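Table 4 source record.
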Amino acid sequence: MGQCSLLETIPGIGLQTSAIVVSELGSPEQFENARQAAAYAGLVPQHRESGTSVRGKPRMSKVPDGRLRRAMYFPAMTALRFNSAAGAFGDRLKERGKEKMVVIGAAMRKLLHICYGVLKSGRPFDASLHPGT
């Protein structure tokens, strides 16, 4: 089973997104963990600070070119509806009063973490490993 086929077992990830994830991330072994892959994709919150002052709310990092970050937007919205792991995660964030775009950004990051795990393990997505993550 190829890498793209493995990624397509994740609810919310289709052919086009899987191809972009594989082409952008390359080999999962180039990252020590999923957090590094998310940082590479620009899916981590970044604080705006100067000296000791922190100004404004944290925003999504815009350091990389953004192709992978853009590719994860609509799949994350789909995953919030149809992927039980991402859906439960999104519901918990909404209950805490997080804004819609914050929830979508967190879902994008969660979905990339799941993609990284599937690629690293070489096994199809198993929902039982992500019970309401």
